[in-house]
Amino acid sequence: MGLVARIEDLPLARPFVISRGARTHARVVVATLRRGGFTGRGEGVPYSRHGETAEAVAAAIAALPEDITHEALADLLPPGAARNAADCALWDWESRQTGQRVWELAGLPAPRPVTSCVTLSLEAPEAMEARARDEGWRPLLKVKLGTPDDLPRLRAVRRGAPAARLIVDANEGWRVEDWLALAPELAALGVELVEQPLPAGQDEALRGLPRPVPVCADESVHTRADLPRLAGLYDAVNIKLDKAGGLTEALALREAARAGGFRVMVGCMLGSSLAMAPALLLAQGAGLGGP
């Protein structure tokens, strides 16, 4: 009975490289809630940038009381992978216990297919061009950048996928000077959005800068509490279940973001389909999609 947690290491089909490092496996924590003859599962992906480890996340889940509720969970755990896994396990358990779909329980319309994107890891320009050529049939590509040599990489991707819509993710890798130099080039290459160009905590530097391409907060936004300070700095927010601490807060954040005039993108960490499934509900009506 109650919640148990299991750590899983999932091999990736290819290395995933961003400006902060590379990964060949996704380390996830699966929360399983057994109560009253029904079982619910949820998955969280610990984020080392915020000091999370799989072991600490699993321990936090295992320490939760057997009668945990969404409301109590928000009081007991901060936003993050542990709360996300437990919250999604609760939604799954409630769905099975009631015989209703999660979207019905949440009072949402039935989900419809959404457009998602494929992420191109940070590599040498030739490698990124080849990958873009392979994936260029997809309608939307996200390009990982955030280095001193980003423009040759982006030009290579555009050569490889001349018809694809492009999003760029700098992963906090630029400075103001980089933005001023690169922004006109991004616009000329047809980039539709730039994620987190500056480090989180330096958001105020975006105020008043030229904006030829819309800018999206990622590392700078976790929950509804972050939105007021981002107003006037970002055009969009990237909502992730692991950052928000579960579907409950993520849905509330989506509505608050829309009410505040932000466009909404729904992202994810490196996880399995168990982690992605709840995000389909979150992505309904999102202006931009993808991991």
UniProtKB/TrEMBL annotation:
**PANTHER family noted in UniProt:** D-GALACTONATE DEHYDRATASE-RELATED (PTHR48080), ENOLASE SUPERFAMILY MEMBER DDB_G0284701 (PTHR48080:SF3)
Q: Which InterPro entries match?
A: DgoD-like, Dipeptide_epimerase, Enolase-like_C_sf, Enolase-like_N, Enolase_C-like, Mandelate_racemase_C, Mandelate_racemase_N_dom
Note on cofactor: Binds 1 Mg(2+) ion per subunit.
Residues that bind Mg(2+), according to the entry?
169, 195, 218
| Protein name (record) | Dipeptide epimerase
- Catalytic positions? 144 (proton acceptor), 240 (proton acceptor)
Isomerase recorded as keyword: yes
Main EC class the enzyme belongs to? isomerase
Instruction: Supply the EC number(s).
Output: 5.1.1.-
Residues of the Mandelate racemase/muconate lactonizing enzyme C-terminal domain: 125-216
Q: Name one GO molecular function term.
A: metal ion binding
Q: Which Gene3D superfamilies match?
A: Enolase-like C-terminal domain, Enolase-like, N-terminal domain
Q: Which family does it belong to?
A: Belongs to the mandelate racemase/muconate lactonizing enzyme family.
Cofactor field: Mg(2+)
* Source species: Rubellimicrobium thermophilum DSM 16684
